[in-house]
Each structure stands twice: as structure tokens, then as C-alpha cells.
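Exercise 3.2. Students should predict the tertiary structure of the chain below and write it as C-alpha cells, then compare their answer with the key that follows.

Predict this chain's 3D structure.
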Amino acid sequence: MNRLSGKTALITGAARGIGAAFAKAYVGEGAKVVIGDIDMARATETAGAIGPACSAVALDVTRQNSIDMAIAEVERRHGGLDILINNAAVFDMAPLAEIPRASYDRLFAINVSGTLFMMQAAAKSMIARGRKGKIINMASQAGRRGEAMVAVYCSTKACVISLTQSAGLELIKHGINVNAIAPCDFDTPMIEPYLNTDEYRTWILDALPVGRVGQPPEIVGAAVFLASQASSMVVGHTLIVDGGRTVI
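Answer key:
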């Protein structure tokens, strides 16, 4: 439908899973897409499979120089940036009494700091070039309430929702819409190790009214909407795509 024709998007953590699905959908809507990922080999392979409108760039969202270099490379290739999806994230679970500090530090470094400083760099680029852009942060239904065994992950995604609200209010004056998507558990490599355990799979399925985990193609419509002109009046909002989980 070419709803993103002429736009350039950078999607972090998009070498596989939901990010890769976003990249494919955006190219199908007429955008040029740059996949940013720490796994450059996989990112390059994914971009090649999507087609010539998609390319890859090395990106570690925990390192400021990597963020700056990735944004500069997108600007060099395409003249600027119109859309950022903060998709890079990690997941971990453990009883509260057993949470390792290293796990806490890693989740906050990627899920929260990575989101914040990617937003900052993208906003600077958009403002400097007078581009009215779109920033989409990947939150989670887990960020809307606490859950046993995943205290740190829930906390990071609650931070993402709050950052989205604050950034949305601040950046809309520059014509930059900041919003988020809050999915439930989707069948992706991030949670695949847990889905393969009977205990976790039963726990998840019991909590999902839809009766199953989501598949990546089922979330792309939300990302296309929030990146398109159709969402021009949507500011600081978190769009829930969770199979009814937060309703119960």
C-alpha cells in the first residue's frame, strides 16, 4: 500500500524475530530500512533476504559511539532518518532472591538505557534536518504490572512506557510522534528457550485468553500504523497487542 513510501527507518535488534518482521513489512510499504544489530552477519543475511531496499549496520545500543556511528551511517546512506523502532531487548527470569546483579545490569543497559539514548540520537538527527519523524519503542504487557519471576524485565518495560510518555510530550513540538507497542509473549528467539520448557509454556498459555503465543506477523500492523501518517494524532501512547492478557 506504500504507506511509508519515501521514508527511511532504522530498526534495532532486527536481525531476527519481531524486528525482522517489522523490516520486511516496512519495505513492503515502500520504506528504506536499515537493520541495526550486534550480530552483523545475521543482520546482513536478513537484509539480503528482504531485498535491496533493506541494509544492515553494526549497532550495540549499550555503547554511545556505536549509536552515533549507526545514526551517521543511516544519514550517509539515505540523507536522514524518519522512523526509529527501538526493538533491541533482552529477557531473563529468576526468583527475586536469586536475581544476579549482572542480569539486572544487562537488562537495564539494553532495554532502558539503549531505548533512551537511541531516542536521543534519532531525535537529534530528525530535528537537525527538520524531519517530522516517528519513534516506536517496544514495551511489553509485562511493563503494565508486576509478575512473579520476571521482576527486572517488568521493571525495564515499565520504564520504557514512562520514557515513551515523557519523550512523546517533549518531542511532539518538533513534529516527532513517540509511541510504544506492548506485546504479550511472541514466538521469537528471545523467549524460545523458555517456550521449550513445559512449566513456562503452561504458565504463559494459562495467562493468555487467546490461548496461544503470538506470531511476529501478527504485530506488524501496529508498527506500520504508528509509523504512518494515520497515527499523526497519537502521542505518548502504548498500543497493547497481547491477546487479552492485560484485560484479565
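Discussion points: The CA atoms of residues 134 and 227 lie 6 Å apart. The chain has a mean pLDDT of 93.
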